[in-house]
């Protein structure tokens, strides 16, 4: 567990830096364009290359030193940030350098994520999987808890270039930690046969599709990622419609307390049973609180609903993670998680591709003063800038709840719980 903790601390530091960059870039792009569409486009470019390359990174993680792949992913992802800084320093401050830079960073992160996922299974016994998953999500929560607060306070004084420089420095800290840990871990080549991407990709696909429980969970998590992306992408434009960037930073940090609470509970209790029930009920709760978040512009109420929404997510992720992890052999972990990542995060890509356009050109016009919903829905949730986005979150939350109910009745997921209890 000590070796995993050391790696986790390095990734925690890296996540804080990456979260600061994501927050600063979203503010920068929105203030530059005043468009939710451009915000979602940049978010799409920040995720799509990683998603597409995850299967390749997963295959490499089943063949070679997983810590070395993490080092390469962290180190070279800083190149994209350097591209943005150089363009800004040269006087070109448009959106295009942002798009190029985040795309380059995303490409190299495709090496890191499957290796990190597989490392958990390699270093820990299955009794520690839930605790490790809670810690990983705790590190992920830092992007929303610590990063926005720090970036919101620093953005006015050091600007976006200063934020990017801080993020680059965190990459070097993480690489240093991984180098130290790598010296004390017995690194083995997990795969000895000749490299054949398509053969090994097909092996990973068969490991997923042959197991109805895993394939059901992958489908459920794909829809979950789709709904979550709406919340992550549209929350900032909705708040900025009636507030400012400092309030947004504080708001995102406060609301992410929920993810911190959920992750700490999981890491402390180390859940060992009832994974399927906890997953479904947590997903239903997340849908309810997403819908409620779209109903109000009151900062206090909005913060409360966001806290509860994010508190439910670690339980969803941990339960799905454990149920899948214990059914996949160590030598298949890299490619399976790489393929699962590309499938589930396709939900993010789909949401990023449509949510900005839907917000700007469909839902926002509906709730203007002269909009077609101003006289009915508008009387309940309000009208004006940002209220169309709120209506989108209400609808998305309701659909999220419905999907939880539908998948909760699937026998294949319940059978995974029964088999886990018998092992």
UniProtKB/TrEMBL annotation:
Membrane topology: Multi-pass membrane protein
Gene Ontology terms for molecular function: transmembrane transporter activity
Membrane-traversing stretches: 12-30, 36-56, 68-86, 92-112, 133-156, 162-181, 217-242, 248-271, 278-295, 301-324, 336-359, 389-408
Pfam families xrefs: MFS_1
UniProt keyword Nuclease, yes or no: no
Keywords attached to this entry: Cell membrane, Membrane, Transmembrane, Transmembrane helix, Transport
GO cellular component terms given for this protein: plasma membrane
Keyword Transmembrane helix: yes
Ranges of residues in domain Major facilitator superfamily (MFS) profile: 3-414
Locations listed in the record: Cell membrane
PANTHER family named in the record: MACROLIDE-EFFLUX PROTEIN, MAJOR FACILITATOR SUPERFAMILY (MFS) PROFILE DOMAIN-CONTAINING PROTEIN
Name the record gives this protein: MFS transporter
Protein source organism: Anaerosacchariphilus polymeriproducens
Lineage, broadest ranks: Bacteria, Bacillati, Bacillota, Clostridia, Lachnospirales
């Amino acid at each position: 567990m000590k070796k995993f903790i050391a790696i986790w601390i390095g990734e925690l530091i890296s996540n804080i830096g990456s979260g600061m960059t994501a927050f600063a870039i979203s503010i920068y792009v929105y203030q530059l364009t005043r468009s939710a569409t451009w915000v979602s486009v940049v978010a799409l470019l920040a995720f799509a290359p990683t998603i597409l390359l995850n299967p390749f990174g997963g295959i490499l993680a089943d063949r070679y030193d997983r810590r070395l792949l993490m080092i390469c992913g962290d180190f070279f992802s800083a190149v994209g940030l350097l591209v943005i800084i150089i363009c800004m320093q040269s006087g070109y401050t448009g959106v295009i350098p942002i798009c190029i830079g985040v795309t380059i960073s995303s490409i190299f992160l495709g090496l890191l994520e499957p290796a990190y996922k597989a490392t958990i299974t390699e270093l820990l016994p299955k009794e520690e999987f839930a605790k490790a998953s809670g810690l990983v999500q705790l590190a992920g929560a830092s992007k929303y808890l610590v990063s926005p607060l720090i970036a919101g306070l620093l953005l006015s004084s050091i600007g976006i270039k200063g934020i990017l420089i801080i993020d680059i420095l965190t990459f070097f800290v993480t690489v240093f930690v991984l180098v130290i840990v790598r010296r004390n871990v017995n690194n083995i080549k997990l795969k000895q046969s000749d490299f054949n991407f398509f053969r090994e990709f097909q092996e990973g696909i068969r490991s997923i599709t042959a197991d109805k429980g895993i394939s059901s969970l992958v489908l459920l998590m794909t829809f979950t990622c789709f709904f979550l992306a709406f919340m992550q992408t549209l929350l900032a434009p909705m708040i900025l419609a009636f507030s400012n960037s400092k309030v947004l930073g504080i708001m995102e940090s406060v609301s992410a307390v929920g993810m911190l609470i959920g992750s700490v509970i999981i890491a402390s209790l180390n859940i060992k049973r009832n994974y399927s029930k906890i997953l479904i009920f947590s997903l239903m709760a997340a849908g309810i609180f997403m819908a409620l978040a779209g109903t109000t512009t009151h900062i206090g109420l909005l913060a409360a609903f966001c806290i509860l929404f994010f508190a439910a997510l670690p339980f969803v992720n941990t339960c799905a993670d454990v149920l899948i992890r214990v059914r996949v052999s160590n030598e298949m972990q890299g490619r399976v998680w790489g393929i699962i990542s590309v499938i589930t995060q396709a939900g993010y890509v789909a949401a990023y591709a449509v949510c900005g356009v839907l917000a700007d050109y469909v839902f926002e016009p509906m709730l203007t003063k002269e909009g077609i919903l101003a006289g009915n829905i508008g009387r309940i949730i309000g009208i004006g800038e940002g209220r169309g986005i709120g209506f989108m979150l209400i609808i998305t939350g309701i659909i999220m709840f419905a999907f939880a109910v539908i998948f909760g009745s699937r026998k294949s997921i319940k059978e995974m719980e029964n088999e886990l209890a018998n092992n």
